[in-house]
Write a structure and sequence with these properties.
2 domains; single chain; three-stranded mixed sheet; Aspartate Aminotransferase, domain 1; alpha+beta
Length: 281
Amino acid sequence: MSLHRRQALVNLARHHDALIICDDVYDFLQWPVLPPTSSAKNKLAPVPTPYPLLPRLSDIDIPLGPTRHDPKGKHFGHAISNGSFSKLVGPGVRTGWVHGTADFAHGLSATGASRSGGAPSQLTAAILHQLLASGDIDHYLEHNVRPGLQSRHAIAAAAVKRELIWAGVGLLETSEKGKETFGGYFLWLTLPEGLNAKELADRALREENLIIAPGSNFQVAGDEDAVTFPRNLRLTFSWEEEADVAEGIERLGAVLRRVIDGDEEKAIVSHQAEGVAAAFK
């Protein structure tokens, strides 16, 4: 979201006494978009955190102070940031943090789950404390995580342009308009008019043993009339090996060609296809 839209959303929450829980888990996973001609050597170069980042919703809300909805002498705020080390260190860590006002943080720390144990996993929390104190986590992000995601993103984007753009598929290439920056784990695609993402995803599973996420997975249950994504697909590039990411997109392109050409569905699942069944889940 642009800075203007973030500010407007915070003001709306403050007016209506709403709490925004913002899932900012990818804030530290941003990088400059690599040109298509980049070599393998410079793709794996260290990627420092691309500051300045846009302020989080909590960064905008907290300095504005209490609202008329806060009890006297308290400031709970109307936006909190939800961070997760599971995205930064490893998916099994299952430990994160919340950024909010002091009163909100105190209330969260006083819940039964926190008071009885201190964290969902004291062991991983202790390990993360050491990583933070030593600075090792910053080195790991700069030299391993961000370069790895940057390389995978470049490969996935190039494969999409090679295998899908010809059919009129739209690709969100940057995280913010006017900046050559991307972040996170996913590509967001828009299919041309007349194609349904759920139908294409179902056919990709049947014909290519390929699991991809249709846009309907990301609609708000009970509020489908507000925003729908019938022509959108989300592809993840963070987990599979780079060659498998490219191959998965090639298989998706083959399904798209058959759909557009009107070919009869063919059961062409092979032993090779089974190897990347979860490439884009």
